[in-house]
């Protein structure tokens, strides 16, 4: 039986991911919208504590592994939905996992006495996600931080700081290689209204035939 496709929307905080992901989900007759981190699961609750309570401390490696474990909690649900003919729309996924941790390494203070070299090792960072379903299409929404900063404000969660976000953006662009991976599209959404972005994303989806059921097996990270 043909399956649905796995479509991921990635980007910085406030780039419009959640707005576009829910619109996109409404475009398909059968779809499922999944947001990562999913804060409702056992591991998601720990992640929520980590993000919202700055005195709740975890090593950077442990936090990284928890975000990946949270994806594994939803693995069966995602694959079952795809095989049942649903289009699964993801709001963040593995690339957020890599980029946010990589940005911590770039943030590294050279006077640290304990080496955290894993944080800069993309192979190590992707390791725990190996075996998860790979998106058929990744849409990375990019726009200037200056424009982003004018959008409705951040809360006070961990990572919601301008300097760190700018490092995250560089890290995303470092790991998202459109030349070696045709499933990745970097979409410039600067100076565009919500409706214009929706149209643009749908154009990419249609041009790459990601809106139709397919017979190809699910691929894996
Ligand atoms: P994210 O999920 O990436 O953090 P959201 O979809 O929650 O981003 O959008 C963040 C804020 O920016 C919301 O207030 C949303 O209404 C607004 N927004 C989203 N897309 C646009 C756009 N293209 N132009 C202007 N404002 C936008
Ligand atoms: P949210 O604001 O989209 O709910 O995401 C919560 C934060 O978690 C956001 O700052 C990005 C970060 N994050 C990671 O650090 N690693 C991950 O794997 C994911 C999915 C999100
Ligand atoms: Mg969001």
Automatic annotation (TrEMBL):
Its EC number is 2.7.4.9. Residues 9-198 form the Thymidylate kinase-like domain. It comes from the Eukaryota. Keywords: ATP-binding, Kinase, Nucleotide biosynthesis, Nucleotide-binding, Transferase. The keyword Kinase applies. One of its GO terms (biological process) is dTDP biosynthetic process. The keyword Lyase does not apply. InterPro entries: P-loop_NTPase (IPR027417), Thymidylate_kin-like_dom (IPR039430), Thymidylate_kinase (IPR018094). It is an enzyme of class 2 (transferase). Pathway: Pyrimidine metabolism; dTTP biosynthesis. GO terms for cellular component: cytosol; nucleus. One of its GO terms (molecular function) is dTMP kinase activity. It holds the Pfam family Thymidylate_kin. Belongs to the thymidylate kinase family. This is Thymidylate kinase. It comes from Candida maltosa (strain Xu316).
